[in-house]
Amino acid sequence: MNASSEATQGSHRENGATPSALSAQNVTKRFPGVIANQHVNFDVARGEVHTLLGENGAGKSTLASILSGLYRPDEGSVLRNGKEVRLSSPRSGLSHGIAMVHQHFRLVDRFTVAENVVLGSKGLSFVLQPKDIEAKVSEISEKFGLPLDPRAVVGELSAGQRQRVEIVKALYHGAEVLLLDEPTALLAPPEVVKLFETVRVMTSAGKSVVFVSHKLGEVVDISDRITVMRDGQVTGSVKRGEANAGQLAELMVGREITLAPRRGTLDPGDVLLSVSQIHLSHDQSQNRPNQPNILSDINLKVCSGEILGIAGVSGNGQRDLAEVISGLRQPNQGEITVCGLPIVGLGARATRQAGLAYVPEDRLGTGLAPSLSMVDNLLLTRDRGFLVDRKSAFIEAEGFIKKLEIKTPGPLTPTRKLSGGNAQKVLLARELFSSVASRVLVVCSPTRGLDVGAVEAVHALLDDARKNGKAILLISEDLDEVMTLADRVLVLYRGSIVLEAQGIADDLERVGQAMAGLAS
Amino acid sequence: MNSNVWLLTFADAISIATTLILASLGAMITERSGVINLGVEGYLLMGAVTAFVIGDSTGQLWLALGSAIIVGAAMALVHATLTVTLRANQIVSGLAMVIFGTGLSQFIGKPIEGKSRPVIIEKIDFGVLSDLPIIGPVIFGHDPITYATWLLALVISLYLHRTRPGLILRATGDAPATVDAQGVSVKRIRYVHTVAGGALMGLGGGWYMFARAAAWNQSATTNGIGWIALALVVFASWRPLRAIAGAVLFGFCLQVPFTLQGQQINILPSEIVSMFPYLMTLAVLVGLSTPRARRLLGAPKMLGQPFVRDER
Prior knowledge:
The complex is a heterodimer. Chain A has 17 helices and 20 strands. Chain A is an alpha/beta fold. Mean pLDDT of chain A is 85; it is low at 1-16. In chain B, helix 1 runs antiparallel to helix 11 (240-262), helix 6 packs across helix 7 and helix 11 (240-262) runs antiparallel to helix 13 (276-287). The chains are: A alpha/beta, B mainly alpha. The interface between A and B is medium-sized, with 21 and 20 residues.
């Protein structure tokens, strides 16, 4: 820890008279169907690191977007140095010295570092002076401890180096307040250490940093203050030294479960899905030797009449696990059996035929063909004869519409015109009832983006399927959902299973901590 | 057969390359902004017929060429409106322009069918220099537009790689969202470069009419060289100076059948020899069409993709 930067930060915090560098007052932002931010207050002082902590969908990215000018708040105001500012675009945010570094970098891969940094700068001469630009870029990168070769081509840099380019770019354009959205998500541990050093140099130079993160373990070290958000509201705020990981975990996830829990009523039957010692490493061609495996040593068993939940913060290997089990990707090693048949290496179609149905996270696109009607989507997974039997599929579709109360003009309407909940019902209907005798179901984030009514309906469907003896693997980033439905819960963190728990409220705290990487 | 004949063929190839360079420079700057314009053949035909008609009625060479430029720009403006503002499919709009340009030029060209060109672009007289062996006909035997075209390729190359607007243009074809986030209008950049590109194609057509085609020919005035220009863009990997070399190569292929015919050399039927440039075009497009090849060549990443700002 850098002692001098500590002192600087301290003096800023004690000086209460100075207005905050940037603050949001009573900000509310609504998107169709959700309130992303509700009466949120947040501020960051000069020279301070203030972390916004929360789960996915808690509203922290929305707040950061409002602070940087990407979104406009429906209510409330944004203040820069105590004066209200109206930010109409990221550009206008930048003109007030506010810059956001996005999780997905906005860089031109083919350009050099220097070209990326100066792109769009108004201060450039008509004819570029590469030497001057490179010198200026080097100056900034050295000053803030961001080693970069200004002539390197961005497409060849690692994630950590690209992030440095983004930060240098923000500083070049005159940023005083930097909003870093999930800055550690793509970084290897040594790069995280390096990033934290840079953050300290920046704050000791009087810049303010807002750190947006869901990784509890990391932020405690770097933050002067931590504000926790949940469901669009601020649930608590703690200062450095007061931060206690357990308490923060509770603020993040420790809410009452609002939905009535559903549990399996049958004793679990035969093991229908068995996964043992699955390893999946990064694509060798991508040349990222530092990165750990995407999945390491995954073992799990799902029995008939049981829902096994996989909890975890997004990006910890959930999607990869689902794709490996459904046969879309081949693991580097390990075995998977579906209803007793080994399926590794056989591909998605053979896996389906073995009795596995798959409801991917991306329901329109991967799950359903958006421009095709419900009838055609049902036909897609039937036996691959040369001729299709539209008549029976039409009748089947009508049956589903009635039974599941799917709101649609008719079975021939393209599925993209359906609401999220109704599209999910169509997909679930196909995977549960229409597919070739599926006995195992893999579902990913089945209720993401759905309203409460649709969530209830989807949960009821999954519960019914369990009662009918299916083995269900529920992979979801929504902890409520997992705790509500699952008979057993596994927590996935950085590609490994770090905790096995019973799906009961008593385990909630342990599960939350494991999700944040604090499992003992 | 003497070597002089082949020298003249080469000089002719350099001359015919002018249209190829103009058209491919036009396509190149359009594509650098992320817009693909497949209508080149239509633009050339419209440029040619416009130049002919205006030249015929006024006798003014430069007025005729200016009109060809305006017609090309106007067609490109329609393409830009359809694809950038209305986000229509760029391929479809481009092909529609080919059909439109072919049809309209034939309609306009009906009364002038077979009529010989009203004005000619004179070659520049370099005096003694033109009489030099080899260099004379190859370098000092052309008209002002040809030299201007070479200069233009150099200017566009410098513009792309050495200027601020050029930097933004290259970024727009690769990462429009990044450009947009910097507060620069992607739409404006795409409009400007699509229209400028169309203007160059129109000029290419007009020049071809006066410098290469003896008369307006309803069925085969431009002989499909608009398509060759499109292949040339890929062949030159979106770099203006390479387009000159590529255009001369393609121009040579276009010229060889005439030379062979003139020399009464019948190794292959002339129909087969005439196919060479087009076969080469096909080979280039097929050979360089894999995503990997395109990436290595430096194809703009977002080529053909309409830009929509990502908002919830």
